Amino acid sequence: MIWQRLSPIWKTCIEDAWAAYCHNSLPHGAVVTDAEGNIVAHGRNRIREQASEGKQISGNRIAHAELNALLELDWRNVNVYGCKLYSIIEPCPMCTGAVRMAHMKEITYAVRDGGAAAPL
């Protein structure tokens, strides 16, 4: 099966997307890895949820998976310059800007989003 061949990074993204879907939000998950490829934070879309855990936000239009992953990151103990963000769907301009402002090394996504993403 395909699931067994996926890396832990993509499995976590998919699990978070599924959790978002189960909570009536858009099925979208994101993961932040450090320079060695270890998962150091992850988040899910929570725009339609009224409660969240940890530092994540919910219940508003900016509660995107990427922002929630960034909010979960331990900024004091992780060198963000070597971090990468993985996302199920191509990040919107707001999330791309947040990742760039965090000075992360790279953004990787599984699926293009021609509707919400910035044009090429």
Automatic annotation (TrEMBL):
Keyword terms of this UniProt record: Metal-binding, Zinc
Residues spanning the signal sequence: none
GO molecular function terms listed in the Swiss-Prot or TrEMBL record: hydrolase activity; zinc ion binding
CMP/dCMP-type deaminase domain sequence ranges: 4-120
Presence of keyword Zinc: yes
Coiled coil (UniProt feature): none
SUPFAM superfamilies attached to this UniProt entry: Cytidine deaminase-like
InterPro entries for this protein: APOBEC/CMP_deaminase_Zn-bd, CMP_dCMP_dom, Cytidine_deaminase-like
Protein name (database record): CMP/dCMP-type deaminase domain-containing protein
